[in-house]
Specification:
225 residues, alpha/beta, 4-stranded antiparallel beta sheet, 23% strand, elongated
């Protein structure tokens, strides 16, 4: 899951990023409303953590612009204010949840998980499956029949992205944006290297699943050797 943090307090933004990364979430951080909106409009994020009091463009304006632009990514508003009017305003213009600073880390993570399930349509948050493979979202283990192995973070995120999209073809550009992030310097060979890693692990598990290359387009999951 990729999360965008839009927070102008650098120390808090750094703390939020560390919390998310510790829990194996991919993150990008922006410190003002305009750059935050620019990133958010890419549509690559599963959840957006959005502060209300931001320079250049406040959180309400960012949120309103996202919804006008048909970006439906779940948004969790953060604010130092505990006024009912702010909560009502935020929810009315499209926020999905709301937390007041200071907040409890475990509660924040629980809300992020809830919003993530809403974003991806996941009912059971512990595992994802495709054909004969099972991906454990808590342990990062990939299992097939009676064998299992642990994936690295990017391997996990790539395979999760594939499984959530079924047999749909995913381009290298989509993978770079989703896994490496907006404005990343990652190149196609980075994608190819990790696809190779995943293929080798599927072979090691003797799975029927393969990552098929669709020439000139991208990759997709396929079942059946």
């Amino acid at each position: 899951m990729r999360i965008l943090i839009i927070e102008d307090e650098v120390a808090l933004a750094d703390a939020l990023e560390q919390i998310m990364q510790k829990n194996k979430y991919l993150t990008d951080v922006c410190h003002d409303g305009i750059s935050g909106l620019d990133c958010a409009m890419s549509g690559i994020y599963d959840v957006i953590i959005l502060d209300i009091m931001l320079p250049k463009m406040n959180g309400f304006e960012v949120l309103r612009s996202l919804r006008i632009g048909k970006i439906s990514t779940p948004v969790l508003l953060l604010t130092a204010k505990d006024e009912i009017a702010d909560k009502v305003n935020g929810l009315d213009i499209g926020a999905d949840d709301y937390m007041t600073k200071p907040f409890n880390t475990e509660e924040l993570l629980a809300r992020i998980r809830s919003l993530g399930r809403r974003s991806t349509g996941t009912i059971c948050e512990n595992v994802l499956s495709f054909s004969d493979i099972v991906l454990n979202l808590s342990t990062y283990e990939l299992s097939c029949k009676n064998a299992s192995l642990k994936l690295g973070l990017k391997e996990f995120c790539i395979l999760e992205f594939f499984i959530r999209n079924g047999t749909a073809v995913i381009s290298k550009e989509q993978l770079i944006e989703k896994i490496w992030g907006y404005d990343s310097s990652a190149e196609y060979n980075n994608v190819e290297v990790y696809i190779s890693f995943i293929r080798k692990k599927l072979i090691h598990l003797n799975s029927d699943v393969t990552v098929k290359t669709v020439r000139g387009v991208g990759y997709c999951l396929s079942s059946g050797k």
